[in-house]
Amino acid sequence: MHPAFSIIFLTTLIGAGQGLFLALYSGQLYSVLNLLPDESPSFYVIGSMLVMVLLVAGLMSSFFHLGRPERAWRSAVRWRTSWMSREVIVLPAFMGSVVAWGLIHYLGWNPVLFSVSKNISVDVSLLVGAVATLLCFTLFLCTGMIYACLKMLQEWASPLTVINYTLLGGSSGFILATVFAAWQNSGMSGFFGGWSVVLTLLAFLTRAASLYRNARLKHKSSLQTAIGIRHTDIQQTAQGAMGGSFNTREYFHGASKRKYKSVKWAFLVLAFPLPLLLLSFGLGSHVMELLVAAFLMQYIGLLMERWFFFAQANHPQNLYYQTV
Amino acid sequence: MKQLALVIDLNVCVGCHACVTSCKEWNTSGTAGYMADMNPYAKDPTGTFFNRVQTFEVGQFPATETVHFPKSCLHCEDPPCVPVCPTGASYKRESDGIVLVDSEKCIGCNYCSWACPYGARELDEHQKIMKKCTLCVDRIYDESLPENERKPACVMACPAEARIFGDISDPDSEVSSAIRESGGYQLMPEWGTKPANHYLPRRKASITIHEDELVRSDNPLKKEHQLPMPDDDDPTFDEITSW
Fold first, then answer.
1. Which ipTM was obtained for this model?
2. What CATH number does the domain located at B4-200 have?
3. B196 in Cβ contact with B74 (< 8 Å)
């Protein structure tokens, strides 16, 4: 498939935003359970603003993918059958719940609902955050399923697609949360940092698993099934258009073999080991620049990962265009 | 349920592209707007087509066969492009099984074209909406046209009559009998899309004739047996007979 930068930015930006929210909310949950020191409301307010910046930027980017962005509102109609429609509904719902969660912290409308024990009390923000967390995971599911539900794109049609979107978003968001906590001089930076390592390693394993799967994939369609002629030796002599068509542009990445391969190795280095190294050095030495570099390096790596995700998918229609 | 479709005879198609040009000519003035042509007279011309003819060479030279292969939307009975559409712009008509795009609802997200394994949909570069074969829905029901012209433009144009149009759910229709009698098949059956359009395969144009089929060896009177020509010295028929 041809990697569209609008979708690459959409999925990486909202992934980081979702991961950051999950990090902040788990921090809050741990502090409620008295496992981490309490944070000031402003920590969550600025954090939720950061989440919103990423989500809004991702949403804006997605509009560039539409031929008719002024009709985008129509895309919420077919939620019964279309994962894209579901994403279009869940993304704003998640944004709304993040705004509500941030506002509750900002305005202090945070009455205690009930207490579990003497030290543990559940307030409104915890409940709203739980709703937002549910929406956040639903959004990961929707985004992943947009690709995983297309059974003819066999590179995507796997549960690994959803798992990778979730874990890569989580890894990116938790690293950003580490940077954010260090910037705010919060005691949570070590907690976020630890989970960043876990999530990044898990994401590496599942992404490597999908690379392993795709390298051994047997495509169901062949030129023989595409045109229905049972012969082992078929050559295409005309594609139906001399100057190219939508079919020759939309479904081919157009990059050289060398570029394609180097993007794969680049993202494997940039998205996984490099940010982990920078993160551990940064947390050990308290150098802010190293932490920022860890997030940015990984983000570049994730852009490449997403580019490769699209480029690797081999659409069966390409069988009709043998000489592209 | 009615399911209109095309049956394309690959044994007959000569690859003249008349179906391509007549399709474009008819549909570029359709209700969904014209079919864009970008850089028509410059480098890398490109444009929207509902139907394209490709050519394949089967076998190794010199024992090759050239197969011209026209392909448009196959109007699948279980179209994968329809459920993925987020706006409902992509739909399949209950009444006749034609898969259409509502040009007023399409947002141009390309998602339906990703779901189609056949590459039958094209984003119009000018209008930025998805376009595809409509089976000339604005022709086939037009009562102002003579009845024998209520067919898709490609079927009307085909000089070799390689394209047949009709209802494949009716077992007595011309298309159904062609599929049944001539081994009609569907493209990429592995995806379970059940394409309505069918293709008729190349057929052998030679037969094997054995010698004993030419000479009736079992004929007791040997009717085919020819007597040798008489020599010039032999008496003629008149000389050996008398009146």
1. 0.92
2. 3.30.70.20
3. yes
